[in-house]
């Protein structure tokens, strides 16, 4: 009993000392400070860094408002709390940390945060951040209490930065998805490609401007995988900046960044329905994922809460800190591959009207003027002149052909040289095409080059029009020498007023007394190819004739094989190899019969050979002589007692039988 009472007094004494220490410490607490801290004021464009808002010695926090962070993306935020008692002095700090990703390399000023502490409104100090490319940031180092960034934000490709930069309201950020959102649907609504054409109903040869654009509200890196081929069109591409530069367009009330992929001026070459091929783009899209915030669990047991918190108060128990900006929620990201294809566009091309078409119309469509000049209006018959006809305007200039020029009959003229002077990146396509005609008069006098007429079709007026130059008057005097033969002045290496030299003597490589047909080797070279062709033709006919009769071909082959086998038997005869000789002779005869009788070697028999030979009109006596010869060879194999004379006799009989057989077949 006494022991229990003593234990109770000890517990009460400890609790009293604890409460007294807390009251003493509270009475000696330090003033409240609210500061903004960064590890470095210079950060790298592609490296996340941390900004901390620190409240020191705050008793009760009822509100906290972060700055807008314009020019940065908020990747993550979290808070921490620390309390210490040193020599009776109580100090506490509450830190809210934001992990930021810079969006562009400029100098930013981050405004201070606002907090309400014990009913008073406090403001932290602003900080200046210089964002530079290629500068390592130390914002994540040196603070053991700060959490590290789970991922580093991959920089977007130039010109493909996410829209709504620095938007403080995450609900307005199109690249943010929450739990349950379909990423592909988010991408589809905020990333697309389209083709803009200024007109879809045109005449043949009338120019069209086609522009392929990529619209995005997301952070994406894009690669064009397939460009349109523009089949059925003549094209002129407009030069675009590299890398692409973004513009802004409002589509359905939403602001998009727009990148022009290709811009081309098209001239249809045929009538009917022509289709502009789609463009295909592969995209790597980054979406940010907002993790569900974790709310603080409030303790319902007062004693447990008292024992866990010696000051019986946690300033972050305020419901404010369940907000995504202040309640410990995290933002991560994920990259998605997304393929885009533009919709095909159909162009309706109408034929040019036949009514009112001038005879000199050559296919020019647009709006043009024509001028003509000569390099000199007075010249002699020794001189060459140049007429320059220039067609200027807007339209299908690259398809314009040379106009007809009616030079005087005493003039020699040559095909024109074409020179283009097109305006780069002009819309509509404009410029000029010049035709330079070189001419040479042969007689003195005053001449007039008639007006040069040029016809074109104006698609705006839907009518044909003609323009013409003023007539050109030329005064020609007699030169010191007259030209007896036309000279080609169209070569580009000759000046317009330069005459080609006249050759008064035979050329060095030509011998006037040389006659090729009088040379013997000329006729030999002429006859040899003909003789070779005739021999080749005769041999081919002979081979073709032999192959048409398969049996005849086999007979010829069999005769060669049999003689070869007997030739080998003759060699064995000279070597006096008795057994090998008879074996070789027997095999040669049976092989010969197989080919001559057209019987497979495996199916040979005396009865079948006899029947076949008799059908071929071979005398029965000769057939019997063959089998006697074969029997003699077989007997010699098993009873080798013959002499060299017997071997020679067998060899001669075999040759005679084959020769006799061949003679009867040829009859």
Q: What's a concise summary of this model?
A:
With 667 residues, this protein is an alpha+beta fold. It has nine helices and 32 strands. Keywords: Membrane, Transmembrane, Transmembrane helix.
Explain how this protein is built.
- The structure is a single chain.
- The longest helix is centred in the C-terminal third of the chain and has 29 residues, at 520-548.
- Strands 12, 14, 16, 17 and 18 form a five-stranded antiparallel β-sheet that branches.
- By secondary structure, this protein is of the alpha+beta class.
- Residues 21-28, 136-168, 294-329 and 489-493 have low confidence and may be disordered.
- It has four domains: 26-152, Sandwich (Immunoglobulin-like), CATH 2.60.40.10; 176-290 and 335-347, Immunoglobulin-like; 363-477, Immunoglobulin-like (Sandwich), CATH 2.60.40; 549-666, Four Helix Bundle (Hemerythrin (Met), subunit A), CATH 1.20.120.
- A hairpin with a 4-residue loop joins strand 30 and strand 31.
């Amino acid at each position: 009993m006494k022991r229990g009472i003593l234990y109770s007094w000890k517990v009460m004494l400890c609790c009293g000392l604890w409460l007294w220490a807390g009251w003493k410490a509270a009475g000696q607490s330090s003033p409240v400070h609210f500061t903004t801290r960064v590890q470095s004021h210079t950060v790298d464009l592609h490296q996340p860094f941390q900004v901390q808002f620190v409240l020191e010695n705050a008793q009760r926090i009822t509100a906290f408002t972060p700055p807008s962070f314009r020019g940065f993306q908020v990747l993550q935020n979290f808070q921490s709390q620390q309390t210490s008692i040193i020599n009776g002095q109580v100090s506490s700090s509450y830190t809210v940390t934001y992990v930021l990703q810079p969006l562009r390399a400029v100098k930013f000023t981050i405004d201070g945060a606002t907090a309400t502490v014990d009913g008073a409104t406090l403001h932290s100090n602003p900080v200046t951040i210089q964002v530079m490319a290629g500068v390592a940031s130390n914002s994540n180092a040196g603070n053991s209490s700060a959490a590290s960034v789970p991922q580093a934000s991959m920089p977007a490709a130039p010109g493909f930065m996410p829209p709504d930069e620095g938007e403080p309201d995450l609900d307005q950020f199109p690249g943010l998805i929450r739990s349950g959102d379909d990423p592909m649907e988010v991408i589809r609504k905020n990333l697309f490609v389209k083709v803009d054409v200024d007109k879809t109903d045109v005449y043949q040869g009338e120019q069209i401007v086609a522009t392929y654009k990529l619209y995005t509200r997301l952070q994406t890196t894009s690669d064009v995988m397939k460009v349109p081929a523009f089949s059925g069109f003549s094209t002129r591409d407009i030069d675009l900046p590299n890398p692409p530069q973004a513009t802004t367009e409002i589509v359905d009330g939403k602001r998009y960044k727009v990148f022009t992929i290709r811009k081309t001026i098209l001239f249809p070459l045929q009538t009917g329905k022509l289709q502009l091929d789609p463009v295909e783009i592969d995209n790597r899209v980054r979406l940010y994922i907002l993790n569900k915030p974790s709310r603080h669990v409030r303790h319902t047991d007062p004693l447990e809460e008292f024992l866990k918190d010696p000051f019986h108060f946690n300033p972050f128990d305020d419901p404010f800190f369940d907000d995504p900006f202040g309640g410990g929620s995290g933002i991560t990201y994920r990259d998605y591959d997304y393929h885009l294809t533009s919709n095909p566009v159909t162009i309706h091309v109408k034929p040019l009207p036949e009514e009112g078409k001038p005879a000199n119309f050559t296919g020019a469509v647009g709006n043009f003027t024509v001028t003509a000049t000569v390099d000199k209006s007075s010249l002699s018959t020794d001189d060459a002149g140049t007429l320059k006809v220039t067609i200027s305007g807007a339209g299908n200039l690259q398809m314009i052909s040379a106009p007809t020029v009616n030079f005087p009959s005493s003039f020699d003229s040559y095909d024109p040289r074409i020179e283009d002077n097109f305006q780069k990146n002009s819309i509509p396509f404009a410029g000029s095409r010049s035709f330079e005609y070189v001419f040479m008069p042969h007689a003195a006098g005053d001449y007039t080059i008639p007006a040069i007429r040029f016809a074109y079709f104006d698609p705006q007026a839907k009518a044909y029009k003609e323009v013409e130059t003023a007539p050109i008057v030329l005064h020609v005097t007699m030169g010191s020498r007259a030209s007896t033969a036309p000279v080609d002045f169209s070569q580009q290496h000759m000046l317009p007023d330069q005459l080609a030299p006249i050759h008064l003597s035979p050329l060095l490589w030509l011998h006037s007394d040389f006659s090729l047909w009088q040379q013997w080797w000329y006729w030999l070279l002429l006859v040899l190819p003909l003789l070779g062709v005739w021999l080749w033709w005769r041999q081919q006919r002979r081979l073709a004739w032999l192959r048409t009769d398969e049996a005849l071909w086999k007979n010829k082959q069999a005769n060669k094989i049999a003689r070869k086998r007997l030739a080998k038997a003759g060699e064995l005869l000279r070597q006096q190899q008795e057994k090998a000789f008879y074996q070789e002779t027997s095999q040669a005869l049976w092989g010969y019969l197989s080919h001559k009788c057209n019987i497979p070697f495996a199916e040979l028999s005396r009865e079948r050979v006899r029947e076949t030979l008799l059908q071929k009109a071979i005398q029965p006596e000769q057939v019997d002589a063959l089998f006697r010869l074969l029997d003699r060879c077989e007997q010699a194999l098993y009873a080798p007692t013959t002499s060299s004379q017997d071997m020679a006799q067998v060899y001669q009989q075999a040759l005679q039988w084959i020769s006799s057989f061949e003679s009867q077949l040829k009859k």
